[in-house]
């Protein structure tokens, strides 16, 4: 027993002595090697934040530009890989990072203590003050945060500015939105009295809109929370190490002030010169294409799955009915937005190669199927039982009875309701823009970011949606008329 105890003690002491010398190699976490193996660095950003990241139109194509994009390019170059930009809502970026949809986030993000609990950050690459964007006519009214008593302040959800307003302006109501463009629209329409944002971004909006003004409200900001850094998945020390080297090289050459910001300013000036909506017709055309693809494919698969669910719910088997009822009630009881995010970020975490477009189609199809199933079920139940009995008495099987007798009559009865579901699907498909699918809503936001115009792109988008839905309703009405005369 003594020899055995001595052996155990020896092993424990040896392990304790080796601990100080067993430092984890930064490259052993696998993140760096994974990026190099696939040859692509996927960077998540929210391209509505000039001069950090925004969009321009070059040769008819959307290009991502700004100081953050230049940093991303240099980082990818230092890694020896290609750069791929994924544009999505700011408050979805960390979710995308944690589910490995992106390798890094470069989006003017502040490395707050709360964020550091779930992700790793590089060193700070740029520091800017926290400003307020206000209407120029209100310049004499607002001087600091105390001037805004009982006013409504807008801020981007999930941002440092949102927390600053919430914690330091307790006598104010904070209105959080995902997109800065929407916040600026809210400011111009009187929905908010000011918008809190980073200094460079506030000045960018004011420079390109003569009705806006910037002020320094003198927020009390902890120096540890200021500045922008690159975010990485927790434990990705190998990527952080390379990023810090890239940032050090950029800062030594002062590239941000000498090259990146001036270049972003040129892009912004060019955008202001050619901010006619006609110059961005290709954006809307691309949005229509993606919207129709999502709608048509989702209608097809949603209808097939809906028929199956309707038949299961009408079957005599308790287990089949339970499956159908559970699915239908669950889907109808949860928002489509949540379903889209779950498919992309949840299931997508297991299938990391799942594209955003495919995830959007899957989510919309599954959602539509639940509603289509109820429409079809009601149509089938509206057919008198005598029809089924007559068909069966003629020797028809249940399958043939449904195919040639019940379904055709039910389809004629439910066609208006089914058509309404298809029309609704065109509009509801806009929700996929939250995961970066380039549908019409997504393209509208790009146009807003590029032109600094908020309301007019919305109006154009409304007209386009109306044309698509009105056209579809006419087509469905034509077939409905044909059915009545059949």
Automatic annotation (TrEMBL):
UniProt-annotated location(s): Cell membrane
Residue spans crossing the bilayer: 290-312, 353-373, 454-479
Domain ABC transmembrane type-1 per the UniProt entry, residue ranges: 288-468
GO cellular component: ATP-binding cassette (ABC) transporter complex
This protein's UniProt keywords: Amino-acid transport, Cell membrane, Membrane, Transmembrane, Transmembrane helix, Transport
Example GO BP: amino acid transport
Topology relative to the membrane: Multi-pass membrane protein
Chief location: membrane
Signal peptide bounds: none
Record Pfam families: BPD_transp_1 (PF00528), SBP_bac_3 (PF00497)
Gene Ontology MF: a single term: transmembrane transporter activity
Coiled coil: none
Record has Transport as a keyword: yes
Highest taxon listed in the record's lineage: Bacteria
Family: Belongs to the binding-protein-dependent transport system permease family. HisMQ subfamily.
Alphabetical list of PANTHER family matching this protein: GLUTAMINE TRANSPORT SYSTEM PERMEASE PROTEIN GLNP, MEMBRANE COMPONENT OF AMINO ACID ABC TRANSPORTER
Protein known as: Amino acid ABC transporter
Organism: Liquorilactobacillus cacaonum DSM 21116
